[in-house]
Write a structure and sequence with these properties.
11 strands, disordered C terminus, 380 residues, Rossmann fold, 14% strand, single chain, alpha/beta, 31% helix
Length: 380
């Protein structure tokens, strides 16, 4: 393993390991927490407390629609940088109970749009604006929906490549998809991914996480309430008082798993990381209160030539609020990773001039119509 800057720094140490990005440490400064948000818990709750994410009016939104088999439709918010696309399309995939309006989605969108990338903030099935166009739900291993998205991206926006960034559960979905081949994606970035769902569930049910669990479970039940489910599953969702109960009594029967344990085993990204053949960076904090960093110790990263793990000592869960600009360290890491791969936006150059090799089939354009975002901020 390599340590940033060649020294072991007790307070701001970032471990960069794996075979995927030998030069990344030179581009990536250590994580330094933004005062007063010290420690994993404060890093995690900052966006919930402050609600200061950008509204993105400077980049008008086009409503992106992807029809799915069975009649549901996914919605996304598509933005373009000023002066035209100068780099790969960035597709942002939210976490559990999140959506396009989640704070981390808007912060990242601002960073990449400012850098010259087009950005798509995707809503998974039944999440945010997709709730009104969907009868179903998503889960941690449901990759068919994002497969449909990557097959429908507009050709004009993908000429310079496609980079997908997933957060929390969305990161696990992304990793699973990339292990299945990752058609339509040139590179991926996973932030705070629960790659071992059973271990994450166990941590989430620790007494120290009681407040988190109650808050997030209430949001999960609300999502299920809006779905078109059989009455028995609606009743099961309403009475669930733990994620084990929700996953045993709602997710498992809805998606054909035998139990929550079977769901966690089948949907976790950990067992299939060695199948990923395209560049991926995983960013995770050692002090994440939701997803134990110990699960990342179960991987032989040096034996995975396409994967790079960045494991700073701080950052919480999808936090990484740093003293530098951009304020989120995971966004700074992502920009450095893209530069390392030759996928950074080029000043003054249209995306079609980048000459980046495309790693997927040509894609038809999805239906797009101007529309303004109306959903309130969510931070899941």
């Amino acid at each position: 393993m390599r340590y940033l800057g060649g020294k072991r720094r007790k307070r701001a140490r970032t471990v960069v390991s794996g075979g995927g990005s030998a030069a990344l440490p030179a581009r990536l400064p250590p994580f330094r927490a933004l005062p007063p948000w010290w420690g994993g818990h404060l890093q995690t709750v900052r966006n919930i407390v402050l609600r200061d994410a950008p509204r993105l009016e400077a980049w008008p939104m086009t409503r992106f629609r992807v029809p799915l088999a069975g009649g549901d439709t996914l919605l996304g918010a598509l933005h373009h940088p000023h002066g035209g696309n100068r780099g790969p399309l960035i597709v942002l995939i939210h976490g559990l109970t999140g959506c396009e309006a989640s704070a981390y989605m808007r912060f990242s969108a601002q960073v990449f749009l400012s850098a010259g990338h087009p950005v798509l903030r995707l809503n998974l099935r039944g999440a945010g604006p997709s709730r009104v166009t969907s009868r179903g739900l998503y889960h941690a291993g449901r990759t068919d929906d994002i497969e449909a998205v990557f097959a429908a991206l507009p050709a004009d926006d993908t000429a310079g490549g496609v980079v997908a960034i997933g957060y929390s559960m969305g990161a696990n979905i992304l990793l699973r998809y990339m292990a299945e081949g990752g058609a339509g994606i040139d590179a991926g970035i996973a932030v705070s991914a629960p790659i071992d769902l059973a271990m994450a569930a166990q941590r989430f049910h620790h007494p120290a996480n009681l407040a988190y669990r109650a808050w997030l479970l209430a949001r999960v039940r609300k999502e299920a309430e809006g779905a078109k489910l059989p009455p028995a599953l609606h009743a099961a969702a309403a009475r669930a008082r733990s994620f084990y109960a929700f996953d045993d009594d709602v997710i498992a029967p809805l998606f054909g798993f035998t139990s929550s344990a079977d769901y966690y085993s089948e949907a976790s990204a950990l067992p299939v990381l060695d199948r990923i053949t395209r560049p991926v960076m995983l960013v995770h904090a050692k002090d994440d209160p939701w997803v134990p960093a110990a699960m990342y110790g179960h991987v032989d990263w040096c034996g995975l030539p396409r994967l790079t793990l960045c494991l700073p000592s701080g950052g919480g869960h999808v936090g990484f609020h740093d003293i530098a600009e951009p304020p989120a360290w995971h966004d700074r890491a992502a920009l450095a990773f893209l530069a390392e791969l030759g996928l950074a936006a080029r000043a003054g150059a249209p995306a079609t001039a980048l000459g980046a090799p495309r790693l997927g089939a040509a894609k038809p354009a999805a239906t797009a119509a101007p529309e303004q975002a109306t959903h309130p901020d969510t931070t899941g």
